[in-house]
Amino acid sequence: MSPFGGKAPCIRPRSSAKVLLGWLLGGWRRAIGGDEATYRLVDLLAEVGRRKKATPAQIALAWLLAQKPWIVPIPGTRKLDRLEENIGAASVELTAEELREIDSTSSTITVQGACYPENLEGMTGR
Fold first, then answer.
1. How much of the chain is helix, strand and coil, in % rounded to 5?
2. Does the global pTM surpass 0.85?
């Protein structure tokens, strides 16, 4: 069972922005009607990344790491350079203001939909 009670918002990746938001929100559910907010969030992550000399993905992972000590993002990758990028997120320190800004922007996203297609959802044990 998910620590989110099976309600972790997710996004299905259709672009790099959707993938990044998926990391932020903890999985791959569809965001319906949230595209404008999604891209505002991605733009914010890119801007914070420029200031920190980090990638938007590193900022997204750093934001997750800053939430609670028991939250550990586990992004999947098949490429060594992406693994190294993900590991680099652990050294990114976000200020309280940056955390508030990301929280505020991410809260404007409406997330709906199932994490998996109905035929696969039955296999998850939920």
1. 55, 0, 45
2. no
